[in-house]
Amino acid sequence: MRRYLLIPIALILLTSFVHPFYTSVTEVEYSSKTKELGMACKIFPDDLEETLRLYTGKKYDLYKNDKQLLNPILEAYFKKHVAILINEKARAYSFLGYEIDKEVVWIYFNIPKLTGVRSIEVQSNLMYEYKAEQTNIIHINLDGKKQSYKLMAPAISAKLEQR
User: Fold this and answer.
1) How confident is the model over 131-155, as pLDDT tens digits?
2) In CA terms, which of 58, 63, 72, 102 is 20 to 30 Å from 88?
3) What is the C-alpha separation between 24 and 152, in angstroms, rounded?
């Protein structure tokens, strides 16, 4: 009898936790050859959906909702929570769209026609309002010089400089 009780309890425990960690990965890459900065953010869809619900008060499904509906919401959320500083000056970036890749969502941005880039700083507080234990991993590649950063609230800044 006791063994039969353990199976349902184990199933409940396993299914109640979608994943045990809350993280995003932001990759920023600049090449002086192309004169373009590209940024891609990888996030678990369920976490992003809940974050957007908290942000707008409405429920969204990244798998089912129309991209025309979600694109402006994602763009507004990211522009509020992620800043890109080039040579210590904030720069506007363009939202390119998003795609679902198996169990993650990728969101893409860029800044074209950049020259003279000596430093890139990413300021991110993505999803800090959703989970206190949110971790934002930032990878910056500046003309082949690479550095990775781990940001946990209240930390928001990752900076790479050319020397």
Assistant:
1) 989 999 999 999 999 999 999 999 9
2) 72
3) 11
Bridge partners of residue 83, in order along the sequence: 123
Q: For residue 85, what are the contacts with CB-CB under 8 A and spacing of at least 6?
A: 91, 119, 120, 121, 122, 123, 159
Tokens of 66: 């129309």
Q: How many domains does the chain have?
A: 1
pLDDT score for 86: 98
Phi, psi values for residue 141, rounded to 5°: -125, 110
pTM reported for the whole predicted model: 0.85
What is the domain range of residue 92?
A: 19-161
Report the candidate in 145, 43, 148, 37 with the shortest Cα–Cα distance to residue 158: 148
